[in-house]
Amino acid sequence: MRRAKEHTSRKEERIAEITHKRRGELLRGIFKILKAHPDGLQAKDVLSKLEEVVPPTEFEKTNYPSNPNQRRFEKIARFTTIPTVKAGWLVKEKGNWSLTEEGLKAFESLTDPENFAKEAFRLYKEWKQDQPVPDVPEGEEDANAATTLEEAEESAWASIEEHLLTMNPYTWLYQKNGENTSKGD
Fold this sequence. Notes:
Layout: H1 2-17, H2 20-35, E1 41-42, H3 43-53, H4 58-61, E2 63-64, E3 67-71, H5 72-80, H6 82-86, E4 90-93, E5 96-99, H7 101-109, H8 113-129, H9 140-166, E6 174-176, E7 179-181
Antiparallel strand pairs: 1-5, 2-3, 4-5, 6-7
Helix pairs in contact: 2-3, 2-8
């Protein structure tokens, strides 16, 4: 029982640090960055620029006790974007983040950070109601898994891109009877 109380109070402390207003500030910072890049940006670049646009709080500068190599700021920013993806405002594809027309309109019309975050969350709840009921209860672990999967996908695509950029263009040719010929031959 005592352990559950301690866990609950630690969770409440974490939640208290991240208000709707703060989520809105982070989201609007991300949207401001992406507005200047209509084709989108790699998530790591967005998060790097975000630190300049919306400096992390003292709490966000700290690392997670369970993962001392993971700073809170980037994880919180990633997690905060989930409602905007489900609202149809933000697209995340192969590690690239970009705004939709609806996202740009929301950014321009909802200038108050708290209202911006609340509207994204409202739309997220609408989306969630239309989803099938999961077999297991959703919690913080699910959100952590979602952001971890996103980071893994980004890393994989970045590695693939890096590898392709370092390849000799003739690698696409294959050996046929001891001669290099294109695949079309």
